[in-house]
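re: that chain from earlier
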Amino acid sequence: MSESEANRSLVRRLFEEVFDQRRVDVCAEVVAEQYAEHAVEPFGSEEPGAVDGPAHLRDVVEWLTAPTSR
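^ sequence. v structure.
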């Protein structure tokens, strides 16, 4: 498998397994233990910076997939 194919497979796992199937246990397999998060939270003013990768991704998934009240 080429590096490009491996990268596509990893991203596919991220979206299909973590976001679509809500298998947050997979977070530890698809993201680094630490990474620099550059996305600013809504209504935030600063980038989070270095984060615990799997835990941060689990929190992001929960936030993005939480039911909304309308």
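The chain has a mean pLDDT of 91.
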